[in-house]
Amino acid sequence: MGQVVIITGGSSGLGRCTAAIFAAQGWRVGLIARGAGGLAAAAADVEAAGGIAAVAVADVMDSAGLVAAAAAIERALGPAQVWINAAGNGVYGRFTDVPEAEFRQVTEVTYLGTVNGTRVALSLMRPRGQGTIVNVCSGVVFHGLPLMTSYSGAKAAVRAFGQALRIELAFERSRVRVSTVFPPAVNTPFFNHAISHMGWPARPVPPVYQPDVVARGIYMAAMTGRPEMTISGTVAAFALLSRLAPVLTGSVIRRLGVDGHLTRDAAADHGASPTVFAPSDKPSAVHGAFGERARRWSSQMGLRRLYVRLAGSRGLS
User: Fold this and answer.
1) What does the alpha-carbon distance between residue 278 and residue 90 come to, in Å, rounded to a whole number?
2) Is residue 49 part of a domain?
3) Is residue 316 one of the residues assigned to a domain?
4) Which of 105, 115, 243, 280 is the most exposed place for a label (fewest CB within 10 A)?
C-alpha cells in the first residue's frame, strides 16, 4: 500500500496536475474541491497514472466540511502523510473597482482556506508525530502585483502564516513539517476562472510555465520538507531583485502597465468561466489557454533535483 497525500483544490490546474505526479510515484491520492465533475476528472487522471484516488466535495472555507472530507478520504485510503493546500482564486482590477464581497472571497479562499486546510492536516498529523504540509503560495509575495491586490495580499499572508507556524512547531519539537512553495506564472485555468474588471480577461505575466514544472516542484517540497522553495529561476531572480532593489523592482512592474495583465484574445474572452463564488458546472482542465509560449522546463528545478539525488533523498524523479 502506497503513502497517502490529500490535495485541496485538486479538481483543476496545479492541484490536478500535482495529483497525477504523486500517483505516478505510487501514492494514493485524496482530492478535495467544490465541484464533483472536476473531482471525477482528476480522479481519472490519478488512475490513468497508476494510482488510487478518493474524492470528497468540500469548500475550504467550511472547516467542518473539510474535517468530514479528510476523514472520508482517510477511511478510504489510510492515514495521510502529506497534505497540500492548493485551492485559490483571483479577481483582477484596480483596488477601487473590486467589490468588497469579491475581495473578501479571494482572501478567505486563498488565505483562510489554506489556514483551514492546515488546521485539519495538523489535527491528523500531530497525534501521529509526523507529516508534511505544503502550502502553494506565489512569487507575488516578493512584490505584490498591481490589479491583483486581493490575491497579492492573501498570498503574502500565506507565507507569513507558514513562517510563524514552523516556529511554533519547533517549540514543541514536532516532526510535522510545513513547506511553502513560490511558483511562477503558470498556464492553468486560473485565469479563465478569475473575475476581471479590466474589460478583457486576465492573463499570466510572462514568462509562463506549464503546470507540470510547478507540480514537480510541489512534489519535491513534500519529499524534502524544505521550509520555503522558489520554483523556477524566474521566481528566484525576482525574489533576489525585490530584496536588493525594491524600487527598481517596482519600476519594472510598472512598465507592464494594464495591458501586461490582460489578453485581448476573443477566444479567451469566450472561454471565461468565473468560479470565484461557485464551482464550474463542467470539469476544468489541467492546462490553460496560454500554452503556446509556456516553458516546459526549468533549469533551476533540474539542478535542484540533481542536488537532492546527490544528497541522498529518494523518490524524486
Assistant:
1) 13
2) yes
3) no
4) 243
Displacement of CA 296 from its chain's centroid (Å): 18
CA distance linking residue 5 with residue 74, whole number of Å:
10
Give me the residues of the chain with pLDDT under 70, please: 1, 265-271, 312-317
Per-residue model confidence as pLDDT tens digits over 177-217: 999 999 999 999 999 999 999 988 889 988 999 999 999 99
Question: Does residue 300 belong to any structural domain of this protein?
Answer: yes
73: containing domain: 4-310
